[in-house]
Predict the structure.
Amino acid sequence: MKPIQKTVLITGASAGIGHALAIKLLEHDYKVIGTSRDGSIAGIANTNFITIPLELTETASVNQARQWLTQHNYNIDILINNAGVAPDISTNQPDLESMRATFDSNVFGLVAFTEAILPLLNAHGQVLNISSQMGILNRPPAADSTAYRMSKAALNMYTKTLAARLKPKDISVTSIHPGWVQTKLSSKGAPLTTQESAVGIFHLLNSQMKTGSF
């Protein structure tokens, strides 16, 4: 018997890890909903792929995305929170403007969208937050990327609190480190391609990850 086709929603699927992950999932017969700021995503031609516009920092955009999914009767098996920004990556001096922009997207926008989508998650669903080991507090200290590091630390805590809240509903919530990947957000010297990162994330999605874990 052919397994039930799962529906995955990936934020920030127009480039980088999100784009590579959408392609990987489509190769394995998942239905994929990808978001981008203007609703257009190039380089993917597949009948199982649709796109919707989403600007995480705008409440109206978050609400419109949820309304569109509801009106078209989309239920989600896996929500992958991939979209994010890193304007202060590799810089040492904290900048409040960059910090506000980072938290607006990586924390406030992510939480707002996740909470809006939760009613559409199927039983035994998954929420996967693309985080970073740069947000782990017990790592050796570093002086750079203050806003980005803080935002990922906050995301990891949201993962834990959301996991505790959704455990009675049998919905798992996890954070993962996608590796040091060659994207426009990363500093120079990243060893992994987006395709290699997508393969690792795909394997994690199909493993028994403990809810609330990093």
About this structure: The helical segments are 16-27, 59-71, 96-117, 146-166, 194-205. Strands lie at 7-10, 31-36, 49-53, 76-81, 121-130, 172-176.
